[in-house]
Every structure is written in structure tokens, then in C-alpha cells.
Input
Amino acid sequence: MRTFNKLSVAGWLLAGSIHGSANLLETAAVACPLATALSFNGTGLGEGTIGLAHTNAAFDPYMQRPSIAFGNGTFVAVDGHNYVLTSLDATAWRRRDAGTAFALYDLAFGHGLFVAVGNEGAILISPDGVNWTMQKSDTDDRLRGVAWGNGRFVAVGYSGSVVTSKDAVRWTKQYCDTEERLQAIAFGHGVFVAVGWHGEIVSSSKGYFWRRRKSGASGHLLKVAYVDGVFVATGASHALLISQNGSRWMRWDWEANVEVARGPL
Output
């Protein structure tokens, strides 16, 4: 059984998956002005969603922070506005018109495409982060998280809303046994894990059959990541939840508020 300590957990939170870079945190903080840390991988940056983290006792956990994805040689970010940001080097960023009036809150890269999700069921796709096309999402619920895994995209949002797609064009609404707001989703260990209000955690291997999991938390969970073989969920309280398989969770009490977003895929 894996053992955890504050040093290893702090490492995941601050820099995603750490592989031999002594100057990783310093480099990341300089390289990405949009967030406290940008997680790189010592063997090179892979396509997928980049890990972000922030630790500060005074920070507001409900404040929207950027979600960043990397694919096709481009970084793309959304931060709760109706536009996107793109960069080739994670240093110089350019605002791009996404062609929507709806705020965008999360994005993922997979199947050669960026997928961004947001308010009123908004789903947009782009091959390059510059040219975006709105898709029919099969829901009007506000979407807050999206992930790629097992050959499909899965997006989650308010009222337990879940929509899935294999090609990012045709989306299907799925049943999820919760009415809670789902705020974030991650994929790892062959499983999608979504977290939300009142400590809600649900998991599914393919996105269309979901099981509620006991989190032991009553506060709102706002972020979830899969980093270095472990799911990490955080929220508005000082609690940190950890799971190796997405089903069984253990609580980690932290002396400061912690926010974590998705790690490298």
C-alpha cells in the first residue's frame, strides 16, 4: 500500500508530476504568468491538460483560475471569459475570439482537438486553438469540467449533468445518479472521476454508467487531478482527498487552503 507524506503531496500540488527537475517550480512560475505553477514532465511535455496548482491560506477557492491544455504544438487557456488564450511557448499569450457569448471554464485536448466547455451547455472545438466551432451539447446546464480518456470526451456540470462524445461533434447526455453541481473531472487508472458540491464524488469507466463514492467530505469539492498514479481532490475547506483508484478515498487535513487542477495525461 502506498504511503503519503506532506512532501510528496505538496510536490503533486505545486508542480504536477515531478521528474528530476530541481528548478521545476521556479521555471514553471516564470514560464506561465497565468498561474502559480505549470507542470512539466522531465521526459518532455505531452499532449493533454496541464496541471495547475495554488497554495495560499488567504486565497479565494471560488475565484476562477485558468485551465490550460497543450496539443498540436500549442498551449490554450480558458479562464471564465468568452474568449481563449493561446501561446506557442507558455510565455507570450494572445487573446482569441472563440465565437461565443458564453463564459468558458475548462478545456481538454484529445483526438487531435481542443474541447472547451462553459455556461448554458456551451461546447466548442478547435484543431489549433484559433478557429473554434460551437457544437450541440444535448444540455442547457452549465458545464464546468471536461476530460479525455478511453477514446472519448466527458463533460460535467450543474445538476449532475454529464455529456459524452467520441468525436467531439456528436454529444449524448448520460444519466448520473446525483443532482449536485459537478465542478471538475479527471481521467486516470482507466476511470473518469468527477467531483462537486457537498463532497460529491462519482466515477465511471466510460462516462455513461456512474457510481457515487463516499468522500467523507461535506464541503464543496472544486478540483480533481490525476497525477503520478493518484487522484487528488480539493475544495473550499482545508481538506484534501486522495485515491489510487477513484473508488476509495482518504482524507488529508492541510493547514492551508489548497487548489489543484488536472495533471499531465
User: Anything to note?
Assistant: Residues 159 and 179 are 4 Å apart (CA to CA). Residues 6-15 form the longest helix (10 residues). DSSP finds two helices and 24 strands in the chain. The helical segments are 6-15, 24-31.
